[in-house]
Design goal:
By secondary structure, this protein is of the alpha+beta class. The chain has one domain. It contains two helices and two strands. Strands 1-2 form a two-stranded antiparallel sheet.
C-alpha cells in the first residue's frame, strides 16, 4: 500500500437521538479482510470503495488506535475517562 488512494471509506461516525437520549459510535477499519466489503456501498457512494489504515500504509494495531482515540478524547473533553463498567455501576 502506498497511501495514495483517495475517496475510499475508512471510518464512520454515527449519532442518534431518541427521547432526549443520544447514542453515538465510531467505526474505524484498522486491518479487516477487505474482501468482505465487496458488496457494500459505503454511505450510498457507489464510485468509491472501502479501505483500512493498514491498507493505506499505516501499520497500526487496535491497541495503538485505542490509545490514540483515548488521548484525543481526553485532549478535547478532559483527562477523566471513566471505564464503561464503572459507569454502568454508577447508573445502577
Amino acid at each position: 500500500a502506498d497511501g495514495t488512494r483517495g475517496g475510499d471509506k475508512m471510518a464512520g461516525i454515527g449519532i442518534r437521538l431518541r427521547r432526549w437520549v443520544s447514542f453515538d459510535g465510531i467505526a474505524i477499519n484498522v486491518e479487516p479482510d477487505l474482501g468482505h466489503f465487496g458488496g457494500i456501498v459505503p454511505c450510498g457512494v457507489s464510485d468509491h470503495g472501502v479501505t483500512s489504515l493498514v491498507d493505506l500504509g499505516l501499520p497500526v494495531t487496535m491497541a495503538d488506535l485505542d490509545l490514540a482515540l483515548k488521548s484525543a478524547f481526553q485532549d478535547v473533553f478532559g483527562p477523566a475517562a471513566v471505564p464503561a463498567a464503572e459507569m454502568s455501576r454508577k447508573a445502577g
